[in-house]
Amino acid sequence: QVELVESGGGLVQVGGSLRLSCAASQSTLSGYWMGWFRQAPGKEREFVGRISWRPGVLDYADSVRGRFTISRDNSKNTVYLQMNSLKREDTAVYYCARDRIMWRDRTVGRSEADFGSWGQGTQVTVSS
Q1: Mean pLDDT throughout 13-24?
Q2: Gap between the Cα atoms of 17 and 85, Å rounded
Q3: Which residues pair with 42 in a beta bridge?
Q4: What is the DSSP string of 24-93?
Q5: How do residues 30-78 score in pLDDT, each as one tens digit?
Q6: I need a surface site. Which of 17, 20, 55, 109 has the fewest CB within 10 A?
Q7: Distance (Å, whole) CA 114 – CA 106
Q8: Which pLDDT tens digit goes with each residue over 71-100?
């Protein structure tokens, strides 16, 4: 069973940047799609983006496209979420998640149900 631990959250001003990390232990991230989700107070958890095990295959929610970038370093068993030009509405707990299926040939869905392992989340607060 993989253990995922997010880090890098914190308080940042509007327009600022943060980089979140998601480190895995007990199991590998190689060969899996990885996703980032977030949950704002009083709202449901929502999809932020996903990165394939195939190099260069990524996808983002419309709300973050052009501002957020997902990357991975399989040698470090870590996935990253670089967040630039942060807005107040980006305030949320951010979660990383690993696909249920290794070497999934098709694109993993954007639903929480498509991901089988989750981290505990890291808080990001954007203030004006």
Answers
A1: 98
A2: 6
A3: none
A4: EESS--TTS-EEEEEE-TTS--EEEEEE-SSTT-EEE-TTTBTTEEEEEEGGGTEEEEEE-S--GGG-EE
A5: 999 999 999 999 999 999 999 999 999 999 999 999 999 999 999 999 9
A6: 55
A7: 12
A8: 999 999 999 999 999 999 999 999 999 999
